[in-house]
Amino acid sequence: IVRYNMISHLNKILKPSFATGDAMRQVEYIGNNTYIIGTGSGKLVRLENENFTELYNCGAPVISMMRDRKNFVWVSTAGKGVLVLDNRGKIIHHYNATSGTRNSLLSNFTREALQVSDSLYIVAGEHNLNLINIYTGAIDHITTNEGLPNNTVYSMQLDQNNMVWMSTNEGITSYDYTHNEFRMYDEKDGFLPVSNNSDLLYRSCILHDGRLVFAGAGKYIIFQPDSLVQRRAPKDVTITDIRLFNEFLPVDSILKENGLHLQHDQNTLTINFTS
User: What range does the domain containing 260 cover?
Assistant: First the structure.
């Protein structure tokens, strides 16, 4: 770990004896000159006043960590779900895939956690999003069947208008979680296309002026969410007319009678609709 003094502009290298050869992937500051460190081997370490204390071994690599508004640290792992630590490094909750249908993750592989309100957190899983209500314990799963444009989400940020932005295998996507509406962005919006793994954006942050940064291996993008036009999902389809052998049929009557029943030889049907 390299500690940088912003006043003296000097660096100091800190080397914990038990972490030889172990990659320190994530660092989160929790106050009082104390940090939580997550490693590639799954260790969680507290760094306090230059003293290292090993807290816990997750049993799976630490992928990312997120400090929430309560100063709790959410640790996403590659195989053991999500662990929540208090400001002393004690595990106070463990979300995994074995807790039951309504209060479990879809899988134990998790990439990142994001707090979107006092009660709602989103955890990016292996092939889905997990929406966790920390007060009720209920967890909803959002997959491509529920509208998720791409099932691999790497990183997420909440903008100043409470819109969730995420990087996926197909680029940047916004998510209005209050309406469960997604929108993908591409070259027409000024974003670079994702053509291979070098284009993937694995990490993100929000700047003081509200701009979002998503970064990957050798490239990054910075954008102001407010500058992008937010298009809502199309309205529900409305059938305007139905024709059988080019003869108009009463749409209202058909809808009220729960459908249209046809004979096997009534096989020329035209339906017009608007959206």
Answer: 238-274
Residue 58 tokens read as 């997750």
Identify whether 254 is part of a domain. yes
Q: How many domains does the chain have?
A: 1
For the record, the structure tokens of 125 come out as 């899983």
pLDDT interval class at 129 (50, 70, 90) = very high
Mean pLDDT of 201-210: 94
What span, in angstroms and rounded, lies between the C-alpha atoms of 209 and 143? 32
pLDDT tier at 255, thresholds 50, 70, 90:
confident
Classify residue 248: in a domain, yes or no.
yes
The rounded distance, in Å, linking the Cα atoms of 159 and 172 is 14
Within a domain: residue 259?
A: yes
* Residues above pLDDT 90, as percent of the chain: 56
| pLDDT of res. 218 | 78
Residue 146 lies in a domain: no
